[in-house]
Design brief:
single chain; alpha+beta; about 65% helix; rod-shaped
């Protein structure tokens, strides 16, 4: 009986040892598997981290690329705009150059024209009815002085010449009176002058006993008969705005 018990104990011990040995054999591969799994997991995390980093860098590069592309498009639009501005400026410069050339040619033609206009104006005044002659001829002399002044522009010179013509044209409808003297038979007589445009230019002595009319054909004063004393007086009164304008009977001398 004891022998069986010992055999049983031996068998049990052998089974226990075998089981212990078997458990060690099984445990080592599991550890290896777990260790390998941890290594794989760690490597996967590192790989994912690298992938995330690469993806992030890729996104940054993509954003930078898009920004560069957008900026390039903006620069292209701006450059096209500047190019159009430059083209327009060049066209304007060419236009200005043509205008300047035209102005220079105009000046060359206008200056001689102004001198001719001044000469013609002077001749006209000397041939016209001699009212206010001194002032009118003085205006012509001022024009001549202006023409040789470097401080006056060509346009201003031309404006003054035209203004002188405008003043002369206005005399055709001028109604005016003034006082002065007439030389008659070697005597100086104080008179009132009356002017109705360029139609008639008369004079009357202060005592109202004598009257004269200017004959522009002969360039002389002609004494009028007594029948014209009252009409001449009325002309002078109308010129002074002392009477309303109305028809009067006076001799008219036509141009020859």
């Amino acid at each position: 009986m004891s022998v069986k018990i010992r055999k049983s104990l031996v068998a049990t011990a052998l089974v226990g040892a075998f089981a212990f040995a078997s458990s060690n054999v099984i445990a080592d591969p599991l550890k290896d598997v777990q260790k390998a799994g941890l290594q794989i997991q760690t490597a996967a995390v590192k790989s994912q981290t690298k992938i995330d980093n690469v993806y992030g860098q890729t996104q940054e590069l993509l954003a930078e690329y898009r920004s560069v592309v957008d900026e390039s498009e903006l620069l292209k639009v701006y450059n096209d705009h500047v190019a159009r501005l430059v083209a327009d400026q060049n066209a304007s410069i060419e236009s200005f150059d043509r205008q300047i050339a035209t102005i220079d040619n105009t000046k060359q033609n206008v200056v001689p024209l102004m001198y001719r206009m001044i000469d013609t104006l002077e001749q006209f005044i000397k041939a016209d009815v001699p009212f206010n002659s001194d002032n009118r001829l003085a205006r012509v002399e001022r024009l001549r002085e202006t023409m040789v002044s470097s401080s006056v522009t060509t346009s201003e010179k031309f404006r003054q010449v035209l203004e002188a013509y405008t003043i002369e044209a206005a005399y055709s409808s001028l109604v005016a009176a003034s006082q002065g003297t007439l030389e008659v038979d070697g005597k100086s007589i104080n008179v009132d002058f009356g002017q109705l445009g360029r139609i008639t230019y008369v004079a009357q002595s202060f005592d109202l006993k004598h009257a004269w009319v200017w004959d522009n054909n002969t360039k002389q004063w002609k004494e009028l008969g007594d029948e014209y004393l009252k009409p001449v007086k009325e002309v002078i009164r109308m010129a002074r705005k002392q009477a309303t304008l109305e028809l009067v009977k006076l001799p008219i001398f036509g141009a020859e």
